[in-house]
């Protein structure tokens, strides 16, 4: 076999093994609520312990790969409401969509957030994702926000962004132990309260 064919075969095997490790790490997190140690990851994935550190430089790189994979999986689920819908329908759809996605990503997100303060790459991933979701909210409610003055617009967007965030969902769902439907209603109430001024006169 030509050398290039051997190299390509090794690369494909390495990529498959990396995917296997990432999928095993996600499965472990969802089952145990924590990131696996190298030994646990080896057992859970069936990949030899020594091979983990041939495929990844360290566990931080595995963690970053896990968060990246999860973000890629759920990004298409963050569907924005049609901006032509009435305000109350946009708010309700946003609350439902965000709550459903937060529910899906919660185990991995919860573990990732605990690691982000000590892993620069993870912190950057979360910052990038949070900005994208904030921009999405700004676009969906642009018609309401643009009628506000600069200060009120900033406050309204900050409130809406916070209400639609994973952090707000997590507080309601797990600290306050609300049902998924109850979480959605709280989000609807907060976002609705943040935006009525958009119907009134423009303020500074």
Protein topology:
Blueprint: H1 3-32, H2 38-45, H3 49-55, H4 59-74, H5 87-116, H6 120-140, H7 142-145, H8 150-163, H9 166-175, H10 180-194
Global structural class: mainly alpha
Number of DSSP helical runs:
10
Strand content: under 5%
Helix content: over 70%
Distance between the termini: 72 Å
- E-strand count: 0
Order of helices and strands: HHHHHHHHHH
Provide the residue-averaged pLDDT.
Answer: 91
Query: What is the radius of gyration computed over CA atoms, rounded to a whole number of angstroms?
Result: 21 Å
Low-confidence stretches: 197-204
How many domains would you count in the coordinates? 2
Taken from the alpha-carbon principal axes, the silhouette is elongated
Largest sheet: none
Q: Which keywords apply here?
A:
single chain, 204 residues, Arc Repressor Mutant, subunit A, 2 domains, disordered C terminus
Characterization of the model:
The structure is a single chain. This protein is mainly α and 204 residues long. It has 2 domains: 3-56, Orthogonal Bundle (Arc Repressor Mutant, subunit A), CATH 1.10.10; 77-199. The protein is built from 10 helices and no strands. The radius of gyration is 21 Å and the shape is elongated. It starts with a helix and ends in a 10-residue tail after the last helix. Mean pLDDT is 91; it is low at 197-204.
């Amino acid at each position: 076999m030509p050398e290039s064919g051997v190299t390509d075969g090794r690369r494909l095997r390495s990529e498959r093994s990396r995917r296997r490790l990432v999928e095993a790490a996600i499965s472990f997190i969802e089952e145990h609520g924590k990131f696996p140690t190298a030994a646990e990851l080896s057992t859970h994935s069936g990949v030899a312990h020594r091979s983990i550190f041939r495929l990844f430089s360290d566990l931080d790189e595995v963690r970053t790969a896990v968060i990246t994979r999860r973000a890629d999986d759920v990004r298409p689920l963050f569907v924005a409401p049609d901006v032509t819908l009435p305000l109350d329908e946009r708010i309700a759809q946003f609350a439902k969509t965000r709550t459903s996605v937060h529910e899906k990503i919660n185990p991995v997100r919860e573990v990732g957030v605990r690691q982000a303060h000590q892993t620069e790459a993870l912190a950057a991933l979360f910052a990038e994702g949070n900005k994208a979701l904030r921009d999405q909210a700004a676009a969906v409610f642009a018609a309401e926000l643009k009628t506000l003055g600069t200060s009120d617009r900033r406050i309204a967007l900050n409130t809406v962004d916070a209400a639609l965030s994973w952090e707000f969902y997590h507080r309601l769902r797990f600290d306050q132990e609300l049902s998924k439907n109850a979480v959605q209603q709280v989000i609807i109430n907060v976002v609705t309260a943040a935006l009525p001024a958009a119907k009134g006169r423009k303020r500074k």
